[in-house]
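**Protein fold record**
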Amino acid sequence: MSWYAVKSLYHFGIKESGKNIYEERIVCFKAKSFDSAHAKALKDAEKYAKDCNFELHPEQSAYKQDGKKLRNGYEIWSVLYESDLDLEAFYNEHYLKYDYNPDS
């Protein structure tokens, strides 16, 4: 069995300003296949969404770990993006443009 990191996206809530809040959550599961990992992750994600009263986006992404034991510095998630933007502009667009600031 291998370890899989599975990413799910949740609609966390709506601020008073009307802006949506989203949570990207990555969890690990030991499974025999991607299908099995997705099934475990879906069950976990549905429970998390129900317990927190969040809306779950139906698509999940999974990343198969290399088979080594989990340890400090172990890579849980790696994803590649393509963009014409330079590093700083890409960071600002992808990570800061929709950043959640509860007090603003």
